[in-house]
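for the writeup, i need someone to sanity check this before i put it in the appendix. the sequnce is what the collaborator sent (i think, or maybe the updated version? ugh). structure was predicted straight from it, no edits. if anything looks off just tell me and ill rerun, i have time this weekend
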Amino acid sequence: MTGAVSTRRWAPPEPWGPHDLHRNLRVLQRGAYDPAQRAVGGAVWRATRTPCGPATLCVEPDAGAGKVVARAWGPGAEWALDGLPSLLGADDDPSAFVPRHRLVALAHRRLPGLRLVRTGLVLESLIPSVLEQKVTTEEAYRAWRRLLRRYGEPAPGPAGTSSGPVPEPMRVMPEPRTWALIPSWEWHRAGVDHKRSSTVLRAVARARRMEEAAGMDPAAAAARLTAIPGIGPWTAAETLQRVLGAADAVSVGDLHLPGQVVYALTGERDGDDERMLELLAPYAGQRHRATRLILATGRTPPRRAPRFPRVDIARL
């Protein structure tokens, strides 16, 4: 039983130029096996919790017509389709970006379809960002998968079934009350320590206040998020990059980003937040877009130290 499907064909406004659907939406996917988002062929499937309820959204290009075709299932289908242009970057203004470094200029020319997406859904990006605090990406993705598979609900439509178009049935993120009722031992089994689980619980206890940040300007939204103990500038930036398409939200406090940005722009191997922000100063208002382009070049410093240690607390 897959339910009724709603369809929307959307033609980007002129002048839009190229659009890299997969690259742009990939920032919303938490690993290759994310139960809430998968790429299958030319299509991107998303299982999401909208203000109107769960929805599954399938987006794929209609190359011949120069449009994007989206299909949606579930109580939140119409909300998801209404937000399609924002999700695909229609609120973004790449023309405001002016490259100041040769490397950035080359990446800018090579990736003309890069646009910053806007989901308008706070908890959907905030919770996995909290899970990514102070652990390896692999650990965070594993925790997200386990929690969604155990406590999420089946995605509406064919993607939520074992015989659907996605290799594994997709799951919609739990509602706030379900997050609040997850036992402490299940957080432990998912590899999430008490500090991070407590931060998630504080956020979902104020779910309505958190979601209101989607209608604020980035500065006010960051202030709203960081008012929750355990949510700092890094987590707020990672969230608002996705929720608002915040072009200037820099992930200060990231373990790897300063070194990558500094090395790419200068060849220096000892980059920190202060040096990164100094180099990004000419991109004020567009610093997140600048870092996206820098990372896309693949120019990273040689590894001189062991990887961030992985601690599997579920085995402790």
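The radius of gyration is 19 Å. Residues 225 and 231 are 7 Å apart (CA to CA).
thx in advance!!
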